[in-house]
């Protein structure tokens, strides 16, 4: 999304109020808890605990899988929409585990901003850094929430320094914590000159807010004990001297992040963060395409599929394509062109995801995420338009880092395995390669845990127990070049060749030496480890 000069176009009010973002964090920093509080404040759920409800209730959410519950990781990304004050928020959930980087990467192509959650005691952790780097590739605006301030945490300056140094981004405090750990009292809202006091007795109560007339207001001393007040005033004075002021454009450019301190579990600081997302967060941005940049104010509807999820509800074998709308005002029943197949699709049952429910979407606007049930026509990267033959740029597919062959432990079920594997490949959960010589499939993934996830899903969703085994290959590269040369190369190297699930040729080997040799001996051919879905 190219243009973050927020005033460059006037948007219809419905688009103008949309904020589409993701939360990035290291596992355990509090993403689920924060999401839950967002939904609570957004009126999308009535009670905390619904998002992480155990058992049956939890299965109503997209991450119904046993595996997710057992491991406490979220394998599937899903979208949630809710209103907050004058804003309409679309929160796209990113899978938290490091094994799922490709899925996460694609998810981040569908949002305009990210909320980075860090644990106040742990600071910037490995997964946060990786996700941050992905956001930076697109210069995405980032809001930071420093969580768990009710526990012993680091000194505020330490946390800010660490973010500035580790992530090379300017940090501007939007709030400043008063006291730490057991002494944590609340925060001073530096942007609105308000004192926010945390209520420890009820975790779902919105913090008490005290209007303060600047830092020399005597009212401060009525609420803050003298020892804490002195330290706090000293720190704020230093912060104002040493740290950058809030600069909206720098934030939109991705070079400065405002930081709020809080405690998601105590509902503390969450509302201020949400206000920040609404007030400062980017409106739906321009989406790049191969024809021209698509501006959200264009009247014609267009969007792209960034995620396909099958069997969201094991009782109904459905497949849902998550579509980011890039422009226009979508209405249920619209006929859109599926650019890849050039076929018209009537979008009869589009869905919006409201907390634990999905609802028919009667309408949606640029910036929204809608789910389109389908039987496999819609794949990741596909564009839907009102007739224009364009493709959205920037949804890459990465060569897998691990390859294994797969077979059904019951040979009678081998035929059905093809169907299951194809579906997972289309969903983007794995890469599927069909060797040109011999039978069977080779499955490629980015992280080892994905084999386990797949095995568990194939058994759970298709009733086929499978076994993954080592293959003779360790690397896969897409092969491109003039057709004649490609065909000739394939003929002479059939033992190394496979096709991916789109039918594109892939060269497989165990040795980097082989790859180097092909590149040297066949200069007209390209071996690539990224295939851009266009
Ligand atoms: P994640 O999605 O990022 O992995 O984190 P999640 O929200 O699941 O939170 C991880 C743990 O941290 C949970 O505890 C959660 O209750 C706790 N937590 C979240 N926010 C805060 C906070 O502001 N303060 C404190 N003290 N703890 C917080 P758990 O014991 O793993 O799970 P549970 O038994 O509470 O469900």
Quick tags:
7-stranded mixed sheet; 534 residues; alpha+beta; 29% strand; binds guanosine-5',3'-tetraphosphate; 15 helices; 8-stranded antiparallel sheet
Give the SSE layout:
Layout: H1 13-16, E1 18-25, H2 31-41, H3 55-59, H4 66-71, E2 79-84, E3 87-92, H5 101-108, E4 113-119, H6 126-137, E5 142-147, H7 156-167, E6 170-173, E7 175-178, E8 186-189, E9 194-197, E10 208-211, H8 219-223, H9 226-242, H10 248-252, E11 256-261, H11 270-280, E12 302-310, E13 319-327, E14 329-331, E15 335-338, E16 343-346, E17 351-354, E18 357-360, E19 363-365, E20 369-373, E21 383-385, E22 395-398, E23 402-408, H12 414-427, E24 431-435, E25 441-445, H13 449-462, E26 466-470, E27 475-480, H14 483-492, E28 497-499, E29 505-509, H15 512-521, E30 526-528, E31 530-533
Parallel strand pairs: 1-3, 1-4, 4-5, 5-11, 6-11
Antiparallel strand pairs: 2-3, 7-8, 8-9, 9-10, 12-13, 12-21, 13-20, 14-19, 15-16, 15-21, 17-18, 22-31, 23-25, 23-26, 24-25, 24-28, 27-29, 27-30, 28-29
Guanosine-5',3'-tetraphosphate is lined by residues 25, 27-33, 52, 96, 147-148, 150-151, 263-266.
Q: How would you describe the oligomerization state of the chains in this entry?
A: single chain
Radius of gyration, rounded?
25 Å
User: Strand percentage, roughly?
Assistant: 25-35%
Report on the biggest sheet.
8 strands, antiparallel
* Ligand identities: guanosine-5',3'-tetraphosphate
Shape: elongated
- The percent range for helix content is 25-40%
Overall number of strands: 31
Rounded mean pLDDT is: 86
Find the structural class using helix and strand composition: alpha+beta
Helical segment tally? 15
* Low-pLDDT windows of residues: 48-77
- Lateral strand order in the biggest sheet: 26-23-25-24-28-29-27-30
Distance between the termini: 15 Å
Family: Belongs to the TRAFAC class translation factor GTPase superfamily. Classic translation factor GTPase family. PrfC subfamily.
Subcellular location: Cytoplasm
Main location: cytoplasm
InterPro entries: EF-G-like_DII, EFG_III/V, G_TR_CS, P-loop_NTPase, PrfC, RF3_C, RF3_dom_3_sf, RF3_GTP-bd
């Amino acid at each position: 999304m190219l243009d973050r000069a927020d005033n460059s176009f006037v948007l219809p009010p419905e688009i103008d109020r949309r904020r589409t973002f993701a939360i990035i964090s290291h596992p355990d920093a509090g993403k689920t808890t924060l999401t839950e509080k967002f939904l609570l404040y957004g009126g999308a759920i009535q009670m905390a605990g619904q998002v992480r409800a155990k058992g049956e209730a939890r299965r109503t959410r997209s991450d119904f899988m046993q595996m997710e519950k057992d491991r406490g990781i979220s394998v599937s990304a899903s979208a949630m929409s809710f209103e907050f004050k004058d804003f309409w928020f679309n929160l796209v959930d990113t899978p938290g585990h490091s094994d799922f980087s490709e899925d996460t990467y694609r998810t981040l192509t569908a949002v305009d901003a990210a909320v980075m959650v860090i644990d106040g005691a742990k600071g910037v952790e490995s997964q946060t850094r990786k996700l941050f780097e992905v956001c930076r590739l697109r210069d995405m605006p980032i809001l930071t929430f420093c969580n768990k301030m009710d526990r012993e945490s680091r000194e505020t300056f330490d946390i800010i320094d660490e973010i500035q140094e580790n992530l090379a981004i300017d940090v501007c405090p939007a709030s400043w914590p008063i006291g730490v750990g057991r002494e944590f009292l609340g925060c001073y809202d530096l942007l609105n000159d308000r004192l926010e006091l945390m209520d420890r007795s009820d975790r779902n109560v919105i913090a008490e807010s005290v209007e303060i007339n600047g830092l020399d207001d005597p009212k401060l001393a009525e609420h803050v004990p003298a020892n804490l007040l002195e330290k706090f005033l000293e720190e704020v004075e230093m912060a104002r001297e040493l740290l950058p002021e809030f600069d909206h454009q720098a934030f939109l450019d991705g070079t400065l992040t405002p930081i709020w301190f809080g405690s998601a579990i105590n509902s503390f600081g969450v509302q201020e963060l949400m206000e920040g997302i609404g007030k400062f967060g980017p409106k739906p941005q321009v989406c790049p395409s191969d024809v021209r940049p698509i501006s959200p104010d264009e009247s014609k509807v267009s969007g792209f599929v960034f995620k396909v999820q099958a069997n969201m509800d094991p009782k109904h074998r459905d497949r849902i394509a998550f579509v980011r709308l890039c422009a226009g005002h979508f209405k249920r029943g619209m006929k859109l062109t599926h650019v890849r197949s050039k076929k018209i699709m009537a979008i009869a049952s589009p869905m919006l995801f409201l907390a634990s429910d999905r609802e028919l979407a009667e309408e949606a606007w640029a910036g929204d995420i809608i789910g389109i049930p389908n039987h496999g026509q819609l794949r990741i990267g596909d564009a839907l338009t009102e007739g224009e033959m364009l493709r959205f740029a920037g949804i890459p597919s990465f060569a897998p880092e691990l390859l294994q062959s797969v077979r059904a432990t019951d040979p009678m079920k081998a035929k059905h395995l093809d169907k299951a594997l194809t579906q997972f490949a289309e969903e983007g959960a794995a890469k599927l390669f069909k060797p040109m010589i011999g039978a069977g499939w080779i499955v490629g993934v980015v992280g080892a845990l994905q084999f386990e996830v797949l095995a568990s899903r194939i058994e759970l969703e298709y009733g086929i127990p499978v076994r993954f085994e080592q293959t003779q290959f360790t690397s896969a590269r897409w092969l491109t070049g003039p057709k004649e040369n490609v065909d000739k190369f394939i003929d002479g190297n059939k033992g190394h060749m496979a096709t991916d699930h789109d039918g594109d040729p892939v060269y497989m080997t165990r040795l980097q030496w082989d790859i180097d040799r092909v590149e040297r001996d066949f200069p007209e051919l390209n071996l690539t480890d990224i295939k851009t879905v266009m």
